[in-house]
Amino acid sequence: MLIIFMLEIIIHCTFKPQQKKILRKLGIKPKIRRYKIGFWANIRSQNIKHTLYNKNGFLLVFTIVSILSLAIVWFQFRLPSGYRHSLSGIAPFFTMSGGMALATLILSTLYTPYAYEKVSNRNVYILMPMYNEPIENVKNTFQSILNQTLLPAELVAVDDGSSLVDYSEIAKEYQEIFAEKGISFQFIKQKNSGKRAAQLNAYKHLEISDFHNEIILTIDSDTVFEEHAIEQGIIPFEDERVYSVAGVIVTRNVTDNLLTVITDLLVIGHMVLIERSMNSMFGSVAVNSGPIAFYRAEVLYLAQKLGYENETFGRVRVEFSDDSFLTMAAMLLGRTVAQMTAVSYTDLPNKLSHHVRQHLRWNRGSFIRGFWRLALFPVNSFVFFRQAFGWAMFAAMNVIKYQLIYWVFFVMTDFPLILVAPLAFSAVYSLAYLSIPRNDLANRDKWIVFLAFPFTVLWAIFVLSPVRIWGYITHKNTGWGTRDKIEL
């Protein structure tokens, strides 16, 4: 771990010097985040009730009791179990990882969405790249925008050189429909240049008068919004320190098969509702969800200055990881938070090959973006700490994991209870899924998804962890991958 920390300090001192000069020239100095409590404090100070986000009191108490019970069992039995099975040498790593997981759980329970009695009127501009997306999906996206309780000022849709679909007819049809609702609509065609180029092309066609107070909403071409999504997504910008807001994506095709159930529970239940909630309390959400992400317009301006359209890593051009780049630009300006009441639906892969490719892309992007965060943020900042400690712990826990697998199958004569701890943690993490504000699943169905938590542990250990390692190793494969057929 010490070697990894030393490498991270070297990255901080030597990586991306040109971008550091740009930040100094613009007078931008990343700020150290302070923890900001939510839930009870917010309700008491403002006396506001969240009509779209009601934390079930029983579930909250049950979660806290489960966390405390897990902590007691964890710290009481780790040393005896470790000693009995000659695992005492790695007990500190168990303690550290368990402590981090418990802290994340506790902090996430204090999260609450932003709420104010009065919310300023803001122009919202939607940027929507399209590439070989089925017409029906695009139509559903348009319709969900029209059904919003707060309508955007403008929608700019960019066809990124689609070869399988022609959007001209649907664009012409909805030009009139949007106009009737008072929404300006632009449809632009460009040669295939990638999602980033499409977003910036749309951005350049906007007439923005107030870059601080007007909002950019980036979406995917298959995004379908809950009716309050835009209205809820702009609320956090009442806090002048907030520069980006991550909405929540929920899996529209969760019932397809066991893979989509596992993915939904891992991505939504664990990554979004637990980890993102905790990071939001520090104003340091690392990556927004592509289908629904809000930014102050000045974030796009800074991203351009930092080389968003032509990002390179080494000598290789980076085409994916656009969401993490924009979120990082927002973090350089101020706080990046989550708003769990801004909900959209999207499809996640229901085939193993596509699922693996998606996670490879995510992990390659995460690896590359980690260098940027280590380089551009202060060593004493939460952003730097989370990135540095996360890499170190991932390396250490992988070594320990393979040691444990060897000991369990070839050394131990009985099974130590400490090895079921990941199941217990997964169960408590998965409780958050039951509180997600989605209208397409009954409570019974949410419980069915929750009961998949044992599979998420096995999937994370034996599939996603090796995929993450391979993604890091092959990080120079930075192409998005052009679709020659329509897939999710």
TrEMBL record:
Coiled-coil annotated spans: none
Major site of localization recorded for this protein: membrane
Segments passing through the bilayer: 57-77, 89-112, 371-392, 404-436, 448-473
Subcellular location(s) of the protein: Cell membrane
PANTHER family per UniProt: HYALURONAN SYNTHASE, MANNURONAN SYNTHASE
This protein's UniProt keywords: Capsule biogenesis/degradation, Cell membrane, Glycosyltransferase, Membrane, Transferase, Transmembrane, Transmembrane helix
Domain Glycosyltransferase 2-like: 126-300
Superkingdom of source: Bacteria
Assigned protein family: Belongs to the NodC/HAS family.
Record-level GO cellular component terms: plasma membrane
Annotated EC: 2.4.1.212
GO molecular function list: hyaluronan synthase activity
Catalyzed reaction equations: [hyaluronan](n) + UDP-N-acetyl-alpha-D-glucosamine = N-acetyl-beta-D-glucosaminyl-(1->4)-[hyaluronan](n) + UDP + H(+); N-acetyl-beta-D-glucosaminyl-(1->4)-[hyaluronan](n) + UDP-alpha-D-glucuronate = [hyaluronan](n+1) + UDP + H(+)
Function (record text): Glycosaminoglycan synthesis. The hyaluronic acid capsule is involved in the pathogenicity of group A Streptococci; it may be the major virulence determinant.
Catalytic class of the enzyme: transferase
Pathway(s) where this gene product acts: Glycan biosynthesis; hyaluronan biosynthesis
GO process terms (BP): extracellular matrix assembly; hyaluronan biosynthetic process
Pfam families linked: Glycos_transf_2
Name of the protein in its database record: Hyaluronan synthase
